[in-house]
Amino acid sequence: MKWLALDTSSAALSLALGQGSLGNIVPVASFHQHLSQQHGASLLPEIQRLLQSVDWQVEDVAGLIVGVGPGSYTGLRIGVSLAKMWGLSRQVPVYQVSSLALLAQQAQAQPDDLILPIVDARRLSAYCNLFAQAEGELTALGQDGHVDWQSFIPELTTRLRDMSYGDLILIGYQIEAFADFLHQEYPQLSFKLQSSAEYYPRADLAFTGIKIDPVTDIHTLNPNYVHATLAERQWADQHQRPVANEEENERYIEHFS
């Protein structure tokens, strides 16, 4: 079975082709490049070039895996929309994966380490989640979320006191400000920083050792924004309604007749 995996949640466009059964997919070809979030213009041409590089046709792709975020709103909409369109038009199975898990999977870690992937969401806020290795598979210890770093760290340190682990690894791109805050405000908390331009969600890492979820109804496939979009906040203000909370993941939609 031939697979296409993609992630458009960051400034990097990441694509991968693989072959094999689910859980044992062997990477065949990949494309990873920082494109300044110009994914709308680049996604389809790069997929076509990648397919041509291994002499595959569009019709050969029998399954898709898509990173659903959290991350760039625009980037996520582009990637998820393509996966939804492909699944509907080609009638192939689609699976979704956390973009934070794809980032955490790259950590240079020991089996007993905890991994905290961080995506800068500006103003010292971040998309993040805590991960651990369990029986050879990366496992999320919570929900992907959008956090205020200054409020999140006290909660994290309290949680870590009750856990047995090796090292805490912070991984991401341009996350030094988060590490500096942690070092200055909580010097007693030991951690390792892995920050590089190469650390972004990589689609090829969805092929093995990571949890992916089947999309049972392609119409329900949506990006995991984890917090309200600007349009939702403006709608809530205009109609004096509360913005949907993260746990319920609700969306207020106004219908015009």
From TrEMBL:
Keyword check for Membrane: no
Family matches, as Pfam families: TsaD
GO terms, molecular function: peptidase activity
A biological process from GO: tRNA threonylcarbamoyladenosine modification
Transport keyword on record: no
InterPro entries the record matches: ATPase_NBD, Gcp-like_dom, T6A_TsaB
SUPFAM superfamilies: Actin-like ATPase domain
Key words, A-Z: Hydrolase, Protease
Region span, Disordered: 237-257
Domain Gcp-like: 35-144
Source organism, top-level taxon: Bacteria
Name of the molecule in the record: Glycoprotease family protein
